[in-house]
Amino acid sequence: MLPPGETLHLFGSLYCTAIAAIVAIRFPHHVRFVRARGSARRRPRFLGLVTTPRLGPFGTGAVGAVLISSLAASVALRSSAALAVAAVAALLYFAQLIQLPEVRRKANTIPVILGLVSLSLAARADASPRLASALLLLIEIIVVQVYLSAGLAKLRASGLAWLDGRTLRSWLVHYHLRDGNRAALAFASSEGACRLASFAIVSFELTFWIVVPFPVLTLPYLAAAFAFHLATATLMRIHYWLFFGPAYLVFLLPLLRRP
Amino acid sequence: MTAVLLLYCALVLALCAWVMWTGRDAWPFSSYPMFAEYRARPVLEFHRLRFVGDETEDLTASDSGLADEFDLRFARVWRSTQPELRGSACAGLVRRYWRAASTLRPALEETRRLEVVVRAAFLDSKKPIVVVERLVYQVDAADFTEAS
Questions:
Q1: ipTM, 2 decimals?
Q2: Among A72, A212, B76, B101, which is 20 to 30 Å from B55 by CA?
Q3: Contact at CB, B19 and A178, closer than 8 angstroms
Q4: What is the C-alpha to C-alpha distance for residues B9 and B50, in angstroms, rounded to an integer?
Q5: Distance, CA of A121 to chain centre
Q6: Burial class of residue B108 in the structure, from the number of CB atoms within 10 Å of its CB (0-12 exposed, 13-18 middle, 19+ buried)
Q7: Do A170 and B24 touch (CB under 8 A)?
Q8: What pairs with residue B120 in β-bridges?
Q9: What is the pLDDT of residue A40?
Q10: pLDDT digit string (tens) for B41-68?
């Protein structure tokens, strides 16, 4: 297996490259979206305290360009300053797109992880195996808390009633009415399948965190996560992979062996 | 610098834990309450905005979030507006979403007629689930062009 320092360095490089590439590919759509709708009327408040500024199409395009170029510079130069700029640019950029379905909460982890990688570069964390391990662990926690939070939210709002399958069925029918997705309607037509899927979803969301203390379970849980996101993408047109997917590198890279 | 890094880590951990347990948002830290509310309505409806021209396309074709927003707003206008005022309220809404959709897909500027279709599903014990569709509102695009 790769040592923690090398894993952290590789994660930083690949994560930044992936985010830069995805933003670059989706950039024209994002700018068109802001032109069509204006910047989000209800822009998010940073840490619940400060409302993010409204940028408009030109400003959003400019910040997007800064985000892509600073990510590219950080990979090429291993510059923590470039990454810090990228983290701030990501906050401003995604705040303008918060109403876009492919963004919403799905891009939340990006500025947090970029900030972490930036500080780890500045502190030369990859030179210290213990510190590098701790940082990789924190990134894993950032990923798994998304699922744990979703599972807890279901229990908090609906209790065990969520497991009866009616809520999932109702949403599948909603997406059929919206998109005409026949697979969603076919799935919703089976109450048993909806009950089983509801149980599987809540179980997966509430237990995914177990891969952090027990890395031996990583592969089965990654397979479950893949199936989960494939299902939401196919049946509901919910694409978490785009902006959240690259964070999964933190689970995949430790599985690599040194050549 | 290591101290700053450790402080950042502690802050991130604390915020993650806080938003998760309280269900509150401190963006970019947030809880993830998607689909959490219990839903068991026997009838579900969705209002689709349809652009009729040489080809027919629905607002749902682009994954822009516009379709979901239009559904909610149209349903609200339909419910809360008196029948004699519905025409102008619906026209304003339809026009606004046509403009937004045309910015995303310029081909939609050639639309000749705009229709709002409500699709309803009945989730009672009958199998398979019954889905019906009916036209509730339509307007010629030329009416908008003349008005502007």
A1: 0.90
A2: B76
A3: no
A4: 49
A5: 22
A6: buried
A7: no
A8: B45, B132
A9: 53
A10: 899 999 999 999 888 999 988 777 889 9
